[in-house]
Amino acid sequence: MKSFHISRYAMAAMMSLSLTAGPAAAQDSPDPIRMVLNDWTGQLLSTQLMGEAFKRKGLNVEYVQADAMAQFVGLQSGDLNVEMEVWATTQKDVMDEAIATGNVENLGESGMKAKEEWWYPLYMKEKCPGLPNWEALKEPACVEAFSTAETAPKGRYLGAPVTWGGFDEERVEALGLDFEVVHAGTDAALFAELESAYQRKAPIILWVYSPHWVPAVYEGEYIEFPPYTEDCYKQERYDCAKPSGPIWKVAWSGVAKKWPTAHEAIKKFHISSDEMNSLIKRVDVDKEPLEKVVSGWLDANEARWQQWFQ
């Protein structure tokens, strides 16, 4: 993602904006609904599409920056109220634990499907022709092809920010890969490095997720690891592909009673991966301000989002 976009909105989110537009429904609390902002553009879009729709219906909204894993503590306590994107790929276990307490509620699938995996540009197949089979990464020539001055003689895998989880170090060890995992500091840094490498046809293999603009803009492939199984993760082997599946919406269990209008609208919120990819591209590639993309979508789709409140 373009670094100045994500950093700007993340920093703005940390200031926790709170705005009200008109009178809320009588049965809803006037207190602000604290909606979680994480550190990737798609999540900022999902959250603010819902949050700005709330404001247009007269509900009070506060945006609060929180870590993608640690946020569940705040959701259990009620200090945080709504999270619009929980990914089956990396957050399912911690979500399930939070729901088991009875203090967090799963409000259903968002319509988007999550995929997170190792990804490489197609030009790397010239130097590592066995790809996308993961076993090609064990070949000395492929290790060298993906190495950098920073990691040589080992190959270099650029992982997501540490706070996202993902078990990449465990996978490298389990599969006997001669690679060093280097974590990007931010989502923005992750994809800024991809853009730079792609332009120079430099060696790179990294964490790429979808919904996202990268698979639509760049030619590349995901590594084909051994198929994911629940036992692979439950037994903490991590010698398999990352899980994939829905992106869910979750909330503090008190939302239904305190903000019933919001609770029902969140359940009805639905957007496809393809539609979200196009919105992410407008922010991160076309450099449109995120607030403009959100307000434009709400203006163009009023009949649709109004249905969420019926």
Looking at this protein, list some descriptive labels.
5-stranded antiparallel beta sheet, globular, 39% helix, 3-stranded mixed beta sheet, alpha+beta, disordered N terminus, 14 helices, 310 residues
Record the SSE blueprint.
Blueprint: H1 3-14, E1 18-19, E2 33-37, H2 41-56, E3 61-65, H3 71-77, E4 82-87, H4 92-100, E5 104-121, H5 140-145, E6 155-159, H6 168-174, E7 179-183, H7 187-200, E8 206-210, H8 214-217, E9 220-222, H9 230-234, E10 245-252, H10 255-258, H11 260-268, H12 273-284, H13 290-300, H14 302-307
Parallel strand pairs: 2-3, 6-7
Antiparallel strand pairs: 1-3, 4-10, 5-8, 5-9, 5-10
Helix pairs in contact: 1-7, 2-12, 2-13, 3-4
Which percent range describes the beta-strand content? 15-25%
Instruction: Work out the radius of gyration.
Output: 20 Å
Amino-to-carboxy terminus distance: 35 Å
Q: Give average pLDDT, whole number.
A: 91
Helix/strand/pairing class, anyone?
alpha+beta
Shape: globular
Report the helical percentage.
Answer: 25-40%
Number of helices in the DSSP assignment: 14
Low-confidence stretches: 1-23
Number of strand elements? 10
Please, could you describe this protein's structure?
By secondary structure, the chain is of the alpha+beta class. The chain has helices at about 5-15, 40-55, 70-75, 90-100, 140-145, 170-175, 185-200, 215, 230-235, 255-260, 260-270, 275-285, 290-300, 300-305, and strands spanning about 20, 35, 60-65, 80-85, 105-120, 155-160, 180-185, 205-210, 220, 245-250. Helix 6 (about 170-175) links the parallel strand 6 and strand 7 (about 180-185). Helix 1 (about 5-15) packs antiparallel against helix 7 (about 185-200), helix 2 (about 40-55) crosses helix 12 (about 275-285) and helix 2 (about 40-55) packs across helix 13. The longest helix has 16 residues, at about 40-55.
